[in-house]
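[job 0412] stage=complex_fold ligand=succinic acid status=START
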Amino acid sequence: MRSKILIVDDSMTDRMIINNILSDYQTLMASNGLEAIEQIEKDPDIDLIILDLNMPKMNGFEFLKWLKNESDYSKIVTLILTNYDEMENEILGLELGAVDYIRKPLNIESLKKRIEVHLKLKMAQKKIERYNSILEETVDTRTHELVVTRDVTIHALIGLLEVRNIESSNHTVRTQWMMKRLCEHLSTKEKYSELLTKDYINELFKTAPLHDIGKVGIPDSILLKPGRLTIEEFEIMKKHTTYGVEALSHESDSTEIVPSFIKTAIEIAGTHHERFDGSGYPKGLSGMVIPLPGRLMAIIDVYDALMSKRVYKPAYEFKDTIDMLMKERGKHFDPELLDAFIEIKDQIHDISVIYIQEND
Ligand code: C2E
Ligand code: SIN
Ligand code: SIN
Ligand code: SIN
Ligand code: FE
Ligand code: FE
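[job 0412] stage=complex_fold status=DONE, emitting structure tokens
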């Protein structure tokens, strides 16, 4: 398709000369700004305008001002062709949106070349715009696919715990809502407000149920043992943390970007049994070296374990559970995080009551 060029010039001779030069293009004519507007409104897919400045009725500057405010026609490229020589006029013209300023008398080859260049630029720009909009659509689709993939994967993994009676689905739901509530509460404190964004809280909410995923690697004879574990059995039990990390890691080259929710899940699985005083496992990390997800999960995990009936223990009363947690302030648990947890203990209790049902 040939490009469409509008020639706007009050001198008929000039219009004819320019028209002859541009025989390769489809051309339209106007003898002043007003006529140019009429032409554009009749024919909005004009690609390029060659604009004279000094014209009756509406001059070139006035026309450029009009064009600048018409967003529908913002894609039209304008070249000024004039015998105004002053620099101020050139600057004003370019400021008003013209892409080039050519002085008369005109050099045929130069005019042709410039028009060609500007049309090519315009085509390239169109292509980039089309490409960008396709790219945006693709990214939206991919992002959505990733979110679905993530959720399906997490569900499948949690399902593995449930079929082996390692965790009930209520335990899963409880821990994630407690995690969310605790994080939301923390995010109202200055120290945590920047770190605990809505997205990050959602990520912790989604990945909290995976904290014990490594338990799938522990034999039933230990996992479901009705009584206390021997020291040897407990040593095997402790491995559920590293098993969890291994299950969530993959052995491709380390330069590959690990999705952030996998990283968070790995932190939770790997460090939820570390203790603030360094006496936990598997690594014996202490204090702030323990990643925040692990420090948060430790509190929620023990709270929920104490409140629940386990094969090896009865369920404790809420008050006793809170007392037991407080005794571990600064020992097992990060004192600041525990204080925040205690501040919202009634809301936490509500969550545990809502999700504890007969089958739990
Ligand atoms: P879990 O049942 O989810 O318990 C998580 C954590 O809650 C425990 O981590 C512990 O810190 C705390 N916790 C649970 N019950 C009690 C309790 O009665 N008293 C106190 N003070 N804390 C409690 P821990 O000890 O590292 O255990 C990790 C996992 O090992 C437990 O997860 C459970 O699956 C298993 N486990 C631990 N002890 C026994 C046991 O004596 N018998 C059996 N069958 N499994 C056990
Ligand atoms: C004309 O060419 O029409 C007059 C001079 C000018 O406006 O550039
Ligand atoms: C467990 O998590 O070890 C038992 C199931 C539950 O109490 O939710
Ligand atoms: C909040 O955490 O959302 C503020 C109210 C509260 O302490 O729960
Ligand atoms: Fe655990
Ligand atoms: Fe647990």
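The chain has 16 helices and five strands.
[job 0412] exit 0
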